[in-house]
Write a structure and sequence with these properties.
alpha+beta, eight-stranded antiparallel barrel, 33 helices
């Protein structure tokens, strides 16, 4: 009776978990073809043990699970290998591709894709031809792209595949190019064919292939001519247009000016208008183009205005009339404060130093954020002209203002007047109330002062900082000082590191071990500790009860003045990353923060200032890198934290490099249009 009741209970749990199993990606083609079925991870200790092994990155320990009698165990073990990324077990994964269970084969193909060892030519193509499941076929196509075998690539490019698989055929071409620089006339012709006859999503992926060509500096004049002809024949709302525009601009012709002006003004979607505006910069020698770009500095769509500001800032042929127009548009107050630094930098570089200084003086004392952003764009301004303002902003009560200023000032440490700038940081470390962001400042300062200050000076300085932070109880910043000191590779520091190993603070202890490791490395083998310091922070432990409380598909709501951003997440695919975000949201750390990063036609990013107490490991999921997908920002592999990055466009070149944990289901228009430094007023977690 007890066994029977347990079976009923588990069945009920699985049924409940499956009720929203189709939610994530369910209406988002492509991607739904590859969504992962629930295996009730939160209620099954044997699957949780597999996740534990995954996080230990122990490929050999996973092998016995590949041969378990339970297909859900075999599938979970294969899925785990995508994050472990160890090619030593590839033969076992190939064997799983012959499993009689479709879900096992799907996860096995996913794992083969993400593991770096080459598979012998013909094996994956033969498995593709024998496979009956469209889902598995799609994943094998992407695995062939990652595998990097030229003959397999050519075989795939010669295939005439069903509409549902053409998208994955295009991904195969993209992955082959991005990961192995494999490209051929056969592949190019197949992509051109899909652009002409494929479904909208397949067209988009095939067009992205040409952006990948440009990313890899593969530019062919005859191909530009062919794509230019296609652009002229396509409608303004064709999904392929933005990526084709990117490639054509790699070989600019005077006659292209009218093409980019047309799509900048009349493109039917925001990304087309912004990409066309961005690439107008290649034609800035023409007055009509410069006038258009300057006019667009005040464009009502932030992405278009940002694209124009990039192009104007890079322009090498501004006339006196152009400079006057920029001054007029800045003085009118119609330009977003996020656009101001690019315009000011252009004016400053063209000799308008006095006008720029007057503009900074006119910003009211209440406009700290606006002033900090304006100064941050002035790469070459004399430090004396901004010293008093920078000192005040660095000590602002607004954490975001402090962060902007510390990043700007630290970037100036490798130039003239670096000693004067260092004095500002000394005062910041001694008196700033923002304990959480001091560790950010320590690493920025250390990274940027290497070229201007001797090892002996830096050792003395960071020992002083270490003592100061210990006295303040700021163990995060003190721990970062130890990492910086380890990078000096000074044998006299060994006693400090040894004594700190037994420190009562786990952060200090782990950083001491990290410093010792760095000290003993050969100089050529050292990692850039200033970008990967999270490697020496403790890893988050997964709380399965907490995850079960919220369900597989909880939702994160982030409220702004302009509306809400609602993200549906998949906690079964990324349990550690999702738990970390749940804990940050529930503790209030994600309230009253800013959207601090907007990369044009790439990503919108936000998160708490300063470092999390824990790091989260990369969890490679089957949620594809499409528009509206959400990833966890990191400082290098396995150094994730609490920073959320939302994609503006498909980003297949990032596949396998970041944790993708969910998708925006409401508010993507806001994500595309929101300005940098928009305030996240509040956040909450909605259980499934």
């Amino acid at each position: 009776m007890r066994i029977f009741f347990s079976i009923l209970l588990i069945t009920g749990i699985i049924s409940a978990c499956s009720s929203r199993d189709e939610n994530i990606l369910s209406e988002r083609k492509p991607g739904s073809l590859l969504k992962r079925k629930s295996d009730s991870l939160f209620y099954r200790p044997e699957l949780q043990e597999i996740v534990k092994i995954q996080n230990l990155r122990d490929a050999e320990a996973l092998v016995p699970y590949f041969y378990d009698i339970d297909p859900s165990v075999r599938a979970r073990a294969a899925f785990a290998m995508a994050s472990v990324q160890d090619s030593t077990v590839k033969d076992h994964l190939i064997n799983l591709l012959k499993d009689n269970n479709e879900d096992v084969r799907l996860d096995a193909a996913f794992a083969v894709r993400q593991n770096l060892g080459k598979v012998e030519p013909g094996i994956l193509v033969n498995l593709l031809l024998k496979e009956n499941s469209l889902r598995v076929k799609a994943m094998i196509l992407t695995a062939i792209g990652f595998n990097g075998n030229y003959s397999d690539y050519e075989d795939v490019m010669k295939m005439d595949l069903p509409d549902l698989l053409e998208h994955y055929q295009a991904l195969c071409a993209i992955y082959s190019l991005e990961n192995n620089v494999i490209v051929s006339d056969e592949g190019i012709n197949k992509m051109l064919e899909i652009i002409d006859t494929g479904t909208p999503n397949s067209k988009e992926a095939a067009a992205y292939f040409f952006l990948s060509l440009r990313r890899n500096n593969i530019v062919k004049e005859e191909l530009v001519v062919r794509l230019r002809d296609k652009i002229n024949k396509k409608s303004l709302d064709d999904m392929a247009i933005p990526f084709l525009l990117s490639y054509v601009s790699s070989y600019p012709m005077p006659s292209d000016t009218s093409i980019y002006l047309k799509f900048s003004r009349h493109g039917k979607d925001l990304r087309t208008r912004s990409i066309a505006t961005e690439h107008l910069g290649f034609y800035s020698q023409y007055p009509i183009v410069r006038q258009e770009l300057i006019h667009n500095l005040a464009h009502e769509e932030f992405q278009v205005a940002l694209a124009a500001s990039y192009a104007v800032s890079d322009c090498m042929s501004l006339s006196n009339g152009d400079l006057g127009s920029i001054k007029d548009i800045l003085s009118s107050g119609s330009v977003s404060f996020n656009i101001v630094p690019y315009a000011l930098n252009s004016l400053y570089n063209y000799g308008e130093e006095d006008w720029v200084s007057d503009y900074l003086e006119r910003i009211s004392p209440e406009g700290e954020l606006e002033l900090a952003v304006a100064i941050s764009g002035l790469e070459n301004i004399d430090v004396d002209k901004i010293r008093s303002k920078a000192a005040r902003l660095l000590m602002s009560d607004n954490r975001q203002v402090s962060l902007i200023m510390l990043e700007y000032l630290s970037s100036r440490l490798n130039g003239e007047r670096s000693t004067d700038i260092l004095e500002l940081f000394n005062n910041f470390f001694l008196n700033s109330p923002h304990i959480r962001i001091k560790s950010d400042a320590i690493l920025s300062v250390a990274h940027n002062m290497k070229s201007q200050f001797s090892d002996d000076f830096r050792k003395k300085l960071f020992l002083q900082y270490y003592t100061l932070f210990r006295s303040q109880g700021d163990y995060q910043s003190a721990a970062m000082c130890l990492i910086v000191l380890g990078d000096l590779q000074d044998e006299s520091l060994k006693p400090l590191f040894k004594n700190s190993l037994a420190d009562s603070s786990q952060l200090i202890s782990l950083s001491s071990a990290g410093a010792q490791e760095i000290l003993s490395m050969a100089r050529n083998d050292r990692i850039d500790v200033y970008r990967n310091e999270m490697l020496y922070s403790p890893t988050l432990n997964i709380d399965w009860d907490l995850l079960a409380k919220y369900g597989r598909f909880p939702r994160f709501r982030f409220r702004t003045r302009q509306g809400d951003i609602l993200i549906e997440v998949d906690a079964e695919q990324a349990p550690m990353g999702v738990q970390n975000l749940i804990e940050h949201i529930n503790s209030g750390l994600m309230d009253s923060i800013y959207i601090y990063r907007i990369e044009l036609n790439h990503v919108t990013q936000f998160g708490t200032p300063g470092h999390s107490r824990f790091r989260v490991l990369n969890e490679i999921t089957r949620i594809p890198k499409y528009e509206a997908s959400c990833g966890i920002g990191h400082l290098g592999k396995d150094t994730g934290s609490q920073h959320i990055a939302i994609a503006h466009l498909m980003r297949p070149h990032n596949e396998g490099k970041y944790t993708t944990f969910g998708i925006v289901i409401e508010g993507q228009e806001l994500v595309r249009s929101v300005e940098r430094y928009e305030l996240i007023i509040s956040s909450n977690v909605i259980p499934q």
